[in-house]
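Researcher: Structure for this, please.
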Amino acid sequence: MLNTMEIQENIINKVAQSGLISLDLAEFYPEGERVVYDIKDNLFHGLILREKDFREFVKEHDWAIYQGKHVAITCTADAIVPTWAYMLLANKLAPFAASVIFGDAEALEDYLFAKAVENVDLERYRDQRVVLKGCGDIPVPTSAYVDLTAKLSRVAKSIMYGEPCSTVPIFKRKD
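Model: Predicted structure, token format:
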């Protein structure tokens, strides 16, 4: 009968020996609060933007409340909003917000992950077998997987999706 020590010595971690590099995109999750600024709240009767009223609001509003936050500017009302209105908001948010985009919450996540993927050191993955981790506690936009796969395809030996013990092959360089 084997004792616990003998059993532990005989266990082989094949995933660790495989040479796979597991890359969890959740590690790139940009910290900071996300805020969606909906310009619909500035519309007269929910329909039109009155320039004088809007400019007064922009002038008087405390934009410092957005300090360090990631802000998406959008309009969920069925209204025609002139481009300059979004530009005014961006101008006022820029000194305070960590980032400002035009779009909804999903577009904001896409943008933040795209910026994070831009900064990935590809040399670390040159000629390596890479597994892009497929699930976790932090939702990663599909766009981040697409962006990173396109970049890694230039340097990696192979790319897989999923978990090291169960992967879906995506790319394998022909040597």
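Researcher: Any notable elements?
Model: Confidence is low (pLDDT under 50) at residues 11-17. The longest strand covers residues 166-172.
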